[in-house]
Amino acid sequence: MNLTSLPRKVSKGLPYLGKELRAIVSDRTPFFIALPRVVHLWRKAPCNAKCIMCNYGFLKGEELRKIFTSRFTDDYFSPALEQVAELCGRGTMVSYMGGEATTSKNLVNWVEQAGRLGLDFRFTTNGYIMNQEMASRFVAAGLFNIGVSLESLDPAINEVIRPYPDGTAKTLQAIEILRSERERQKKFLSINIKTVLTELNLESFLEIIERYGRVDGMMVTPQAFEGMDGMPEETKNRLFVKDLDRFRRVLQRIKEMKAEGYNVHVTDQGLDEMLKAYLEDKDHKATMHNKKLLMDPDAPVCNIGTDNLWIQDGYVMLCPYHPPIGDFLEGKQTLKEMWEGEMTKRVRAQTRACRRLCTISCLRRTPLTHKVQTFLKIA
Prior knowledge:
Helices cover 45% and strands 12% of the residues. The chain has 379 residues and is of the alpha/beta class. The longest helix is centred in the N-terminal third of the chain and has 23 residues, at 6-28. It is globular.
């Protein structure tokens, strides 16, 4: 980290630190003063790819059409961002997920609006249609973080998992375009390379760490492969890691590379829980959304309901695996009223009591020290 950038990083990070301290007080005392640190805007939307580990890749006909259309349409986004700003204030990340984000014609407008409201915005892309003009607009709009999905630097591996013509070259080009634009504009966009660990690409992730893990303003994130409801057995058998000793070796090497200074966005506990999920579900019966795997008894209490909020297809939630606390589309309550309501208190108690083993990166428990270290590297 360049020491000359430290004052800017500290200034940017202080509102986030304030929210973390509010969360600590709220989790450890009778006084609840926490505000959402991350607000996830998730909806069904079109995608321009058919990756084999995703339901866009294996659903067909009417079932596929269902995941293309959401009740939470573009018209609701601007009012939602205004209410997020009213509830949360500065030090808030708005995380958008819906199909392939860059296919949305309004995405840049939402990034710009978030910036005007003092919010930070992030989304994930495959980079296939990213060009210089698009990257320039995102960087100029003040995009805080962009995730880029990449399973391997080797097209022979990456394009088996992500079958798209010349997709690897397009994704790598998108990364370089984004890097060049942030340098040209002197903006501080962080770039997060996201990789799903499978039988086909385990060691490939180590190569991605080596290439990008020491680049200023970049990080790499491993995600455990989990089967999805309805996924063909052939696909699951192809992607689930079969040799668990090999899996252990790769996870251990990831830990070592973190200790060597590579910016890998996962805790050791997160890596251990990826292995635990495989050890306790050797028949691969569990799926991403339907599983009975539990955390270790000594694992910390889940605090996702303290500093996260979802608007998922219009339903407001503290966690995707717990009941909604309201419906944004009904307009009967604002996000602030929902956050402070009695229903939310009851659901929050449920999230704290939950022992579900969550390996999805946005659901994993992350210690404050890890968050601070990562923020200082990428902000």
